[in-house]
Amino acid sequence: MADLASTLEDELGIDGAALRARYRLERDRRLRTDGVAQFVPTTGSFAVLADDPWVEPGFTREAVRDEVNVLVIGGGLGAILAGAELRRAGVDHIRFVERAGGFGGVWYWNRYPGAACDTQAILYLPMLEELGILPPRKFASQPEILAHLERIAARFDLHRDTLFQTDVTGLSWDENAARWIVATDRGDTIRARYVVIPSGPMDRPKLPGIPGIERFRGHSFHTSRWDYGYTGGTQAGGMTGLADKAVGIIGTGATAVQVIPHIAASARHLYVFQRTPSSIDAKDDGPLDPQAFADLEPGWQQRLWDNFTALTGGTYLEEDLVRDGWTSIMANICMLLARSAARGERVADPLALHQLADFMKMEAIRARVSDSVADAAVAAALQPWYDRFCKRPCFSDTYLNTFNRTNVTLVDTAGQGVERITEDAIVVDGRSYPVDCLIYGTGFETSAPFARRLTYPIVGRGGVSLARKWAAGASTLHGMATNGFPNLFILSVTQSGVSLNFAHMIQEQAKHLAYILGRAVGECVTRVEVTEEAENAWVAELARVARDQEAFQRECTPSYFNAEGDLTRINRRNGMYGGGALAFYRIIANWRADGGMQGYVITRGE
User: Fold this and answer.
1) Were both Cys, which of 299, 347, 357, 581 would link to 332 (CB 3.0–4.6 Å)?
2) For the chain, what percentages of helix, strand and coil (3-state, to nearest 5) are there?
3) Model confidence at 28, in pLDDT bands (50, 70, 90)?
4) Residue ranges of the domains in the chain?
């Protein structure tokens, strides 16, 4: 196989050894000793940067004293799908508690100009087939996504008894009453039979821990809390408030790639401070043909989900129903297999060609930069030197061309990041860049383990907190429930099957949750708790099927995918199910089909 790969490299003009050396060089100059500690949370003096800009200030209400069947903490995609599936399962008296002013989660918060999902709408938007809806375009914008999620919430009557603009401050199990006691920052006390926590990984913005960040006296905000009062304009652009402003943006990830072209079109001058360039593939957006979907057989969205999840999860399939930038590496593998066959070579494992296919993809990405950016030095700085999935791939037809504008300056920090911030400027390598407005496109707190990302304590039986129990790593059954915390269910990426299409993952988890709680409510169950034996068996299974990604992650340029290069923070027990998302979905589907609620202790009639 090694000889075949070398032959194919020669035919394609690819020097794999040289590329790997270059990747390692780029990684090394971006490594930092502080890892994820280089970021700071939006708390304390920075808390104002996490405030909700989409509601009127001064909201108050009377405190609630109530008892509910199910309490769902959150209002994002996971909460909405959980609520919809629970309604379908016949579960009633559900209360949602959400700190935002409405449903939508990440799509409620992120309303910056150009905000959109970079996964195709027919894949990302759930329940399209069920609701009889076809998105107008290949990719959905934030307003379209938020409207769709609100449509689902309305369809399943999720607004009923929902407490918006409310943060949970504590969650504790009352053993005698077999209830969870929930406290909030509005003075509420809610007793809940069951609690569901569908915690998305992109809910809390983070800031770069740059020396002097607290000294800046100009205007500043995080992209997830866009300040249209300052910039003017709308999500379509037209930010007249920036016409006389020098603007700086720190970050060149997925959000920045979408918003930078809009800032550049409005600002007097834009400085883009880059540590690591993103890979920018073509987006190729366009209208969808309704007739193409009218002819599809029932179940078409599920088939698309399964196909996309398989291809992006590393499963080789000859059929690609999506055929976009996300699945293009598999297309390269198909091409390499055809070349091999033409040579009379048989490849027993198509995935053995994955690295060469990745090299091909990234060479095309770098060539696209050179073709799009006129200034050779700027183009060189924008070229990504790492494997495709070391960082989140990005898709844009306008980002690269933005750097041909005379009012845009790329400030490449050679992997070192911004040196410091003063009262009115950003300093890189000793040079000062004065700005009136500083925008943070620095993402969210995704690297911390689930129990640490929560902003409130969860205290189970015997006064043991979830953070304490999971101090050495998570322990669950199917990523959803943990011993010592009866009637508590979690929807997250921890110990579950993770798809690059988040909607698919959450839909499968929501179906599983609804089955369990539907059974519990229908059979008058008062306690549902995972046994220690079932929990330990699942942790052991996770260890058995774990994909050893450590070598790949060690070679990657730092990002939130590999804890900013600090592999000591990566705990396999806090990660995903290594057997693949589709295999995980089959496991929980088979568990439901068995019907025995295996691994749970069920108590009735209290």
Assistant:
1) 357
2) 40, 20, 40
3) very high
4) 1-29+205-284+324-443, 65-204+447-546+572-604
